[in-house]
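Fig. S4 source data, part A: sequence.
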Amino acid sequence: MNKRVSGIVTAIVLTLAAAGCGGDSGSDGDSVSVSLITKNSTNPFFVTMQDGAKKAAKADGVKLTIAAGKEDGDEQTQVQAIEDAIARGDKGILITPNGPGVNSAIKKARDAGLYVIALDTPPDPADTVDITFATDNFRAGELIGKWTGVQLGGKPATIAMLDLFNDKIVSVDYNRDQGFLTGMGIPTGDDKKNGDEAKSGKYSGGTYQIACNEPTQGAEDGGRTAMERCLAKNSGINVVYTINEPAAVGAHKALQAAGLKNVLVVSIDGGCAGVQQVKDGIINATSQQYPIKMAELGVKAIKDIATGGKKPEVTGGKDFFDTGVALVTDKAATGVESIDTTKGAELCWGK
């Protein structure tokens, strides 16, 4: 590992360690109640976030209520959870918003005096919430895009884009998608819209063709169905971008069933299972994010604010607090910073 990458890893480790320190667990925390509302309670990413919040709440003497959408994209259940938090008199809400349909409920909560922090998924517009703790999703996509461009070595790229939705616009969806294309050196169109880039042209190393843009709902079965649809359109796909690791696993199964090998599958999450999937060759590279850190910082921030502390600030030059990202792969690419699966397993999700 070169000095530059070593420095990045050290910084991540130190930041994660700092996030787990501090916090007053005295009696003044007994009256602080916080709600965590995730997109769903089945995706390992959100389950891990919930576990991190529980641990932080216990350490800081915070009363935590957990709610979740029934599935990714379920806005109405999240709206109800926000209204419940207002009725309970919670001091704050941590939320991974399922879409713009929750914005009005968030405004209602803030008007009622609750401090609202978005985790993982910045809302649109960003100032819908008080602050967001999240991965730089564009950067996460850019890293796997750059890695893919180098790994292709100038060969033509026939790309399947397996996104999150096709019926709503969510920042995590378009930022990851367009970050990947930008990393590949492919010009994009509207910066808040997927699929409007030129379907063929040149990437940084050669020529490209985008075979499909298909929604996966961020789920394994959705990833498999989306990949099957893409292969029906073009059986020559050799690059698969996926919104997250469950979708990547589904895509891999579809590729296996079709008897296709030597297809580059890249993704974003970097969970412990996802790192193992990289090690096993199911996914070739993934961008690692840190949901435990997001949850810990969120619980602590609301506790601090409720007991007279300072409000958190965004990362310089960004409209959110950047919780970090690292590319995980066992096939390093020249000029692209990365860590291997051994280090990725040590850091996975900020454990």
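Fig. S4 source data, part B ends here. The chain has two domains: 3-135+289-312, 137-288.
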